[in-house]
């Protein structure tokens, strides 16, 4: 079949966005993987599928497939692209929409200046619900947070890193580093992603604190590798930093592909993610 698609990005985190409202889409993991392939397909970090909702009270259903073909729960940058897509395609005339995701309902809003704010819901902080297996570990308290030691096997050597375990609908392991540019993202990112204590794998975040409202961040995303930005990763990093007593809301997050703004009022409150969404081009591919 010929598939119509739109290529988009949010702070360099790039997507293939597909209208599943007006097209019948039922692809295999291999077909999703081909779409995400940068040599044999369109190329993207994630493929986003817009569908009619299956839950009452929602405007759309939003599904996310990683470049490896696996479906995941949430994508913050993708949710902003989602809003811009449904608005540009005339699928809605609402400024604020209610969207069904695998991780629950989110409420993105198109701002007057063209940026998009997403209510990402309250972070999940209990280890077992992230999910993170903390059994037998002795956590180190910092502020309101608990830092958990992760033992990594590095070519016969062992190294322990301290992480905050946070879920923003998908799991994150956030560590503070002195310098994100020299942090061993490519070396330890895959080890953290596949660590046995994260049964669903995990996104590995490397955060450098510049001041109390400004950080730099790199994220090694599960099923993708390092991306130029990660919206849920930015949310998780800001939450971890605020809980550790290192940051104050709102937090500016500098990713390699652009800037995001995160606001969080504290425990039990939703996290708000604000940033850009850009349409790159449209096309068709035989799939």
TrEMBL record:
Biological source species: Duganella margarita
Quaternary assembly: Homodimer.
Residues annotated as the enzyme's active site: 75, 75 (proton donor), 230 (proton acceptor)
Pfam families reported in the protein's UniProt record: DAP_epimerase
Function according to Swiss-Prot or TrEMBL: Catalyzes the stereoinversion of LL-2,6-diaminopimelate (L,L-DAP) to meso-diaminopimelate (meso-DAP), a precursor of L-lysine and an essential component of the bacterial peptidoglycan.
MF GO annotations: diaminopimelate epimerase activity
Cell compartments where the protein resides: Cytoplasm
Record-marked site positions (Could be important to modulate the pK values of the two catalytic cysteine residues): 172, 221
The keyword Cytoplasm is assigned to this record: yes
Catalytic activity: (2S,6S)-2,6-diaminopimelate = meso-2,6-diaminopimelate
Annotated signal peptide: none
Superkingdom field: Bacteria
Protein name: Diaminopimelate epimerase
Residues the record lists as binding substrate: 13, 46, 66, 76-77, 170, 203, 221-222, 231-232
Enzyme class: isomerase
InterPro entries per the UniProt record, alphabetical: DAP_epimerase_AS, DAP_epimerase_DapF
């Amino acid at each position: 079949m010929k598939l119509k698609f739109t290529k988009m990005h949010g702070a360099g985190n790039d997507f293939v966005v597909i209208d599943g409202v007006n097209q019948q889409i039922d692809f295999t993991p291999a077909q999703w993987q081909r779409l995400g392939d940068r040599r044999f397909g369109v190329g993207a970090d994630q493929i986003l599928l817009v569908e009619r909702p299956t839950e009452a009270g929602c405007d759309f259903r939003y599904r996310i497939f990683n470049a490896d073909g696996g479906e995941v729960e949430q994508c913050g940058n993708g949710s902003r692209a989602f809003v811009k897509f449904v608005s540009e395609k005339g699928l809605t005339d609402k400024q604020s929409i209610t969207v069904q995701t695998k991780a629950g309902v989110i409420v993105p809003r198109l701002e007057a200046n063209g940026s998009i704010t997403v209510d990402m819901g309250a972070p999940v902080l209990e280890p077992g619900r992230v999910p993170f297996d903390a059994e037998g570990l002795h956590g180190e308290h910092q502020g309101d947070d608990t830092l958990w030691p992760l033992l990594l096997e590095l070519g016969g050597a062992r190294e322990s890193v301290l992480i905050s375990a946070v879920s923003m609908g998908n799991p994150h392991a956030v560590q503070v580093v002195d310098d994100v540019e020299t942090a061993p993202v490519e070396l330890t990112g895959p080890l953290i992603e596949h660590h046995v204590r994260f049964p669903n794998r995990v996104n590995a975040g490397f955060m450098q604190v510049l001041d109390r409202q400004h950080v730099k961040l790199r994220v090694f995303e599960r099923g993708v590798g390092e991306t130029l930005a990660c919206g849920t990763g930015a949310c998780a990093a800001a939450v971890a930093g605020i809980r550790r007593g290192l940051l104050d809301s709102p937090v500016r997050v500098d990713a390699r592909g652009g800037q995001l703004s995160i606001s969080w009022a504290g425990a039990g409150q939703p996290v708000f993610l604000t940033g850009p969404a850009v349409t790159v081009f449209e096309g068709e591919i035989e799939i």
